[in-house]
Amino acid sequence: MNPEIFNKIEKIRGRAKSITGKKDMEEILSRIDYLEKESSAPNFWNSNEEAQKKMQELGDLKNEIGDINLLTNSLEDIDTLIELENEGESIENDIGREIKKIEELLLKLEIETFLSGKFDKSSAVFSIHAGQGGTEACDWTEMLMRMYTRYFEMKGWRVTTLDLISGEEAGIKSVTMEVVGKFVYGYLKKEHGTHRLVRVSPFNSQGLRQTSFAGVEVEPLVEDDIEIEINDEDIEFSAVRAGGPGGQSVNKTSSAVRIIHKPTGISVSSSALKSQLQNRKAAMNLLKSKLLKIEEERHEKEMTEEKGEHKIAAWGNQIRNYILQPYKLIKDLRTGIETDQVEKVLDGELEKFIQAEIRI
Fold first, then answer.
1. Domain stops at, among 63, 79, 114
2. DSSP string covering 298-356, please?
3. Which terminus in the chain has less CB density within 10 A, N or C?
């Protein structure tokens, strides 16, 4: 066997052993068994919200076991291929493909092991806001929403839109989503920042290039077991009618909710859920997530790792450039990662950018 390939396989074995050694398989399997039995109980879906959380946890644990099993099976396949090669068969290309598959899986497992921050395993509140650029910025915000939503779907995360404000002519001014899954916050926290787009504007009859901006905010989703004290007198609550743009149906009841936290000036809204009670609960969770993040940042030396300092979504503050004209290039300004496959990225293929961010 080629000595270089042999050394690569030995390193893979070492990395795999390091990862599997940190997994308590017995505990994971026991938890899966418990959740499966609980989910088959007649009253399991009496609380839909709680049931969904447990089903999400069950799915995450099964995926974790699946990844470990896939890693083990792939290493066994490598052993089989090595035996065949030792018997005289020329299958170096097959070994190379198997090595590549294992390395991709190892990278995913290593990153999830690397995510050890207090809230890295949590779900997240993910918001996108149009910055400078008018209608163009609103269209860019909608493009980002599509990009991230596709990425969330690829990861198998559950997404609920809590609030969406449409642009006056096109696109959206802002959107807030609840993204539920394991390691969601850890994966997404460094997407926080300004995203800059350069392209020929579809809203300009002269066909001129336009630069527009959108800001992304990411906060850990507050779990029920985390206590955050909010005094009633510090809350300004209002209910308004929720409705969609254009020809969409308008909600005739005042189901949309806006909450202002007077001491901090933080304003949160929820309008996409069916009832005022649901929207109020969602808005309070949004507020708690923001307050939690502020409190955590006070006790951390490197504040930018969790939230990043507040900056206007404008020139000079961007973390990533998306250039569609006069050439095609997406470049992250913090990691140096870049690609000319802009269509794939805008279709949700963000993994190499996000993995590089995690390793900063």
1. 114
2. HT-S-GGGTT-----SSTT-EEEEEE-SSS-EEEETTT--EES-HHHHHTT--HHHHHH
3. C
